[in-house]
């Protein structure tokens, strides 16, 4: 009589010849031993594969490194995709573009050539229309350190939103997401270099309403967001390079030859505390004064 169990087939003794024993075992033929060993190897592989699969799905892919050349090639392709044409590099922006590529490649030459630090964010500063926002927007989906670009005027709009009756909106709660690392949408992990969170870029600091109100409560929205992000950096909850910005404002007031105020600086607009925080958060990349208005 033959009996199959666990994938192996055994030849059993005739009932009339079988003798019960205390050890409750029977010897195996050579063929039976081979079948049992083969099944055991399969069972062991199955158990090992299941353990490996459970381990694999718990592992998070690690961000990859990119060279300066790779970031440069990516930049040109991304600019072409967004603008529908090649990005024009000239004397007014060549140094800025090179430093941005070095920065997002985390190349030490960024520090030696630009005098900045790779562990700080970026503040692009220059005249109206020189290309600050365009460059920052192109680099926002860079394959190393992606970030969200948020116009400061939109931040103010979200703060001042009144909402529907019985459904309060706006206020400081509306700004909460911008005071910390921003969880990215699920999916397309490779496009975000397997990072669970992204940074934030405040676009056009100084163009927003500095005295925005929500139900009578006045707030300097940019000061509020930058303050929280800087506090998070100090507390170790946010990397310093996760915050970027653009502005037309200089750090200090600009006066004419007669001493008259021509342009309010960051310190004048937001106060010395914000000015100090921004110097701590950002590497300042300034376009030359001769940079043309590319919107003209």
UniProtKB/TrEMBL annotation:
InterPro entries: P-loop_NTPase. SUPFAM superfamilies: P-loop containing nucleoside triphosphate hydrolases. This is Uncharacterized protein.
